[in-house]
TrEMBL record:
CDD domains: AP1_sigma (cd14831)
Record SUPFAM superfamilies: SNARE-like
InterPro entries registered for this protein in UniProt: AP1_sigma (IPR044733), AP_complex_ssu (IPR016635), AP_mu_sigma_su (IPR022775), Clathrin_sm-chain_CS (IPR000804), Longin-like_dom_sf (IPR011012)
Keyword Protein biosynthesis on entry: no
Name of the molecule in the record: AP-1 complex subunit sigma-2
UniProt keyword annotations, A-Z: Coated pit, Cytoplasmic vesicle, Golgi apparatus, Membrane, Protein transport, Transport
Pfam families assigned to the protein according to its UniProt record, in alphabetical order: Clat_adaptor_s (PF01217)
A molecular function GO annotation: clathrin adaptor activity
Length: 210
């Protein structure tokens, strides 16, 4: 009798422990919070204050494009351009693309035979400026198709228009390449329509006989 009571008590305790274990095993496992992707998104990058100016020149030192976002006299612009072109061209290919100049930082990048050079404030991020330069080159390449120096020489107004759609007052205003290219296509259509309207037509063309 005593043995049966002991066995019964032991079985009850074992069942209770089993139930507790069974209950604890049914607690839903909480998944860890999803982390944000470490990949850079251009639209989410903290943009700098303001770009001072951008210069585009060839290996021979010929200025192909210049955009100034600060008020300077023509004499000062020529002096800055001459100094920076000489300084950048004198640097070796394996040297750093960042350099300190006066109270500014110069960020430049060479693509084929062209140098893209930007001046930023001392507190701004150099890597973001490099990304801005690369995005501008991508826009040029997308519009012209394998852009080269001759494309910018003979279509410099298009290069300025693309830059104005991309940067406003030295700051990025549009990060989407599709939106920038769409605006350029619309401007091209307006320009073609204006040329057609200015072209004189003969009498037969006006009445639709030709």
């Amino acid at each position: 009798m005593l043995i049966s009571l002991c066995l019964g008590t032991t079985s009850l305790l074992w069942c209770k422990k089993k139930k507790k274990r069974h209950r604890t095993s049914q607690i839903p496992f909480r998944e860890p919070r999803e982390h944000r992707s470490s990949a850079w998104c251009f639209a989410e990058m903290p943009l700098g204050r303001q770009m001072q100016f951008m210069l585009l020149f060839s290996r021979q030192g010929k200025l192909r494009l210049q955009k100034w976002y600060v008020p300077l006299s023509d004499k000062e612009k020529k002096k800055i351009t001459r100094e920076l072109v000489q300084t950048v061209l004198a640097r070796k290919p394996k040297m750093c693309s960042f350099l300190e100049w006066r109270d500014l930082k110069i960020v430049y990048k060479r693509y084929a035979s062209l140098y893209f050079c930007c001046a930023i404030e001392d507190q701004d991020n150099e890597l973001i400026t490099l990304e801005i330069i690369h995005r501008y080159v991508e826009l040029l390449d997308k519009y012209f198709g394998s852009v080269c120096e001759l494309d910018i020489i003979f279509n410099f107004e298009k290069a300025y228009f693309i830059l104005d759609e991309f940067l406003l007052g030295g700051e990025v205003q549009e990060t989407s390449k599709k939106n920038v290219l769409k605006a350029i296509e619309q401007a091209d259509l307006l320009q073609e329509d204006a040329k057609e309207a200015e072209t004189p037509r003969s009498v037969l063309e006006e009445i639709g006989l030709t």
